[in-house]
Amino acid sequence: MTALPMARTPGRDESGRMPEDITPDEIRTRDGSAGDADYGVIGVDYGRYRQPEPAFLTAITDALGDARTLLNIGAGAGSYEPSTLEVTAVEPSAAMRSQRPVGAAPVVDAVAERLPFPDGAFDAALASFTVHQWRDLGAGLREARRVARGPVVVLTCDPAELQKSWLEEYAPEVIATEAGRYPAISALRSGLGGDVTISPLPIPLRCVDGFSEAYYGRPEMLLDEGARLANSAWSFVDRGVVERFERTLGADLAGGAWDARHGHLREQPTFEGSLRLIVARPPAPPAARCALASPR
Predict the structure, then answer these.
(1) Is residue 295 part of a domain?
(2) Does any domain span residue 5?
(3) 3-state SS string over 213-264?
(4) Residue 280 and residue 272: Cα distance in Å, rounded?
(5) 142-199 pLDDT tens trace
(6) Could you give phi then psi for residue 179, rounded to 5 degrees?
(7) How far apart are CA 90 and CA 116, in angstroms?
(8) Structural contact between residues 219 and 245, judged by C-beta atoms closer than 8 angstroms
(9) For residue range 1-49, what is the model confidence (pLDDT) as tens digits?
(10) Mutual angle of helices 172-181 and 239-255, in 10-degree steps
(11) Confidence (pTM)
């Protein structure tokens, strides 16, 4: 008599484990990607479209203060690694590691949720355009806090502000996908702990880091398939959504409808969209807090 397969409890994998029991290392793709996007497929030309934007690099460097050693978590192709610091990078995707420039900081194949470094190994930690890829946000933030003696700096997008982009008119499915992937700012604040500041980061008109909002005044760029693939949300929508986007945006650009509604953006120096710079500094030790509170 043939044995019947055991019924699986909803939410459990074939071995009966719940998602929270599965480690990030177990769900990495062949390329090594540990998030929901496979950069072995979509990240081949990532470095061509996603260059470090100087204005963002300056803001990040300022936020790092007097740090001398830095851990760049989810480092990708090496953006936003200040040349003045001693940087160690962590990146799980082989495709992304292969695009790091000659002379870039040493890179370790590891995931944010399990950093192979001792407590307080670095002066600071950085996570730019990566927290939405972490399978366990809380674990990744705790690890960043654990290995950094000083600030943890996060460059991310506020999902509640993504609809500011004109892309909402043409591909609302992409905006909805992004909003569902990026963690709420409140979750980042609580997960990081300590003294947390959150600042909007204006996007320059000629921004060279090609995430979707970087093209707020250059809509033609998003008709380039490579530019879209450098934004992982496009890999999650149906081909029909992409074709409709290309057809409607192409027609509106050719006929002038896009410019009638949004043409002022072509000359607007900056755009304040969803981009946020989060800086979390560790809480002062009890003795220091007492000293600050004592009257002089």
Answers:
(1) no
(2) no
(3) HHHCCCHHHHHCHHHHHCCHHHHHCCHHHHHHHHHHHHHHHHHCHHHHHHHH
(4) 22
(5) 999 999 999 999 999 999 999 999 999 999 999 999 999 999 999 999 999 999 999 9
(6) -60, -30
(7) 9
(8) no
(9) 323 222 323 333 333 433 344 455 555 556 454 455 555 555 556 678 9
(10) 130
(11) 0.82
In a domain, 272, yes or no: yes
CATH number for the domain harbouring residue 253: 3.40.50.150
Three-state SS across 162-184?
Answer: HHHCCHHHHCHHHHHHHHHHCCC
**Structural domain contains residue 146:** yes
- Alpha-carbon separation of residue 211 from 30, 38, 178 (angstroms): 25, 17, 11
Q: Which domain holds residue 142?
A: 25-283
**How crowded is the C-beta side of 135, counted as CA atoms within 13 Å?**
21
Strand partners, 276: 156, 200
Domain count, the chain: 1
> Contact at 8 Å (CB) between 22 and 52?
no
Buried b (16+ CB within 10 A) or exposed e, 216-226: bbebeebeeee
pLDDT tens digits for range 268-292:
999 999 999 999 999 877 655 545 4
